[in-house]
Amino acid sequence: MALNQESPTDVEKTMPPAPTMDPKSELESDKSGTGNDFSELEEKKKYPSGFKLTVIVVALCMCLFLCGLDQTVITTAVPIITNEFHALEDIGWYTAAYLLTTSAFQIAYGKLFTPFNIKIVFLIALAIFEIGSIICAAAPSSTVLIVGRAIAGLGAAGMFPGGTLILVHSAPLERRPALLGITTGTFGIATLLGPFIGGAFADSVTWRWCFIINVPLGVVTAAVIAWFVHTPVHPMYRQWTVKQKLAYTRLPEIFVLVAALVCLVLALQWGGAIYPWSDGRVVATLTVFSVLTTVFVAVHIFLPGYRTVPTEILRNRSMWFSALFAATTSGAMFVAVTYLPLYFQAIKGASALQSGVDVMPLILGFLVMSILAGIITNITGYYNISMLICPVLASIGAGLISTFSVDTPSPQWIGYQALLGFGIGFGLQQPILVAQTVLEEKDVPFGVAFINMMQMLGGAVFVAVAQNIFQNKLVNQVSVAIPEVEASSLLEGGATNFGAIFSEEQIAILLPIYSDVLNEVFYIVVGLCAATIIGALGTEWKSTKKANTAKSDKA
């Protein structure tokens, strides 16, 4: 894969070296208003304060609120969307498309933020997210909605890391932990409120408001960031040409990875459900996935100059096992959050808003235990403890959820969800701490982006697997139990629109089948929760306290 007929090594040779510049001259440059200042002395760097800092933090909170909201707001609205578009077969795509582009472009944004101006890249990402949201809000068909979700995910991939970097450039070191706590806390609150908000919109106005709400908040955020934020570029990168900066980002290699992942998800969605596994389209997508993945891996092995993933990460055992842990825990969470509202609406007859209330035990359990896991890690210095608790609690909770039936009473489905949330909450954020602990300081940003990518990728892949199983099993079992009705009409009718297709007697037969099929989807959650033990056991025991001390001494 050539970059304008130059290898990265050749490009790097042509890149101008960083100029010798003392801090005083840097600060003078800041006063001159060049817009590209950089100070190596943290304590002498000028940061916004008072009203200006407050406005920036509020804008970043709105940005992260959008990121958190977009992950869960659609979950309770999906059954209604499938009813409107007559597209039950697309239920997994509404989540998978968003997660796929979000995961695939995590690394790309991690590279783009280094040589390019952080503010500009962030605003471009926000604009892409807004365009995707507008497409979703105006979507006339299920296909257009899926495309809009994919575009929104492409923008969201740069919003969270970009917002964090903007905060780093807007607040002194001693104030960052508290401000980061506020902004990331906003993300958690949005995730919690998402099912409520989505259900309320779907029931009272229209599900399209799940995406319309992004537009005014995004515009306000963009205006504040554009006006008040100033993000310096390192002197070395200032002198690079656009060609040199693009060579540094390794975008062609990243697009190869994206194409491979798209082919994988397509194959998982199609195979056995829409087309037979032997169908040429399924075989072709799997073949392209295999070829592109082989090329990507071969480049990292035989052409070090073209590597997208740093060598330090490739050779780090803990990073690979924690990445596996991240993919399995995140996959379990996204499958559960996607299909539990369907259980409550289709089987229990809940409204969209009520189904948002019904999944709160899972989300609240997750948030509470995420906080407790952080406290435990802070006290003991070891993230491994929480990583080992995760598979135990989560596997039990997921196993109990897979026993749901038409008549499951509320005390049981509340307790089972809470137990699953407790388990996943203990583990989901620990891989981020692993990256911050086992990597050198210079590799931490990319390591965190790598973990974030694996979390989103786990969600995209396993939601696709869940959709395949759900659709395939539902059609097959309904065809046997109710042969007088074309089973495919159930997919065309939507997730909960049974009355237009089946009689009351047939619905009485259908609901237990529907519930059993959902349980087979929940078996995926059980398997993923159990598989997290592999990542937990493979991650080395390393004290976060000792690692932080060593890095401080080295600095």
TrEMBL record:
PROSITE patterns: MFS (PS50850). CDD domains: MFS_Azr1_MDR_like. This is Major facilitator superfamily domain, general substrate transporter. Keywords: Membrane, Transmembrane, Transmembrane helix, Transport. The lineage of its organism: Eukaryota, Fungi, Dikarya, Ascomycota, Pezizomycotina. Residues 1-41 are annotated as: Disordered. The chain crosses the membrane at residues 53-71, 91-109, 121-140, 146-167, 179-200, 206-230, 251-270, 282-306, 318-339, 359-376, 383-401, 413-434, 446-470, 521-541. InterPro entries: MFS, MFS_dom, MFS_trans_sf. It comes from the Eukaryota. It comes from Triangularia setosa. It is a multi-pass membrane protein. It is found in: Membrane.
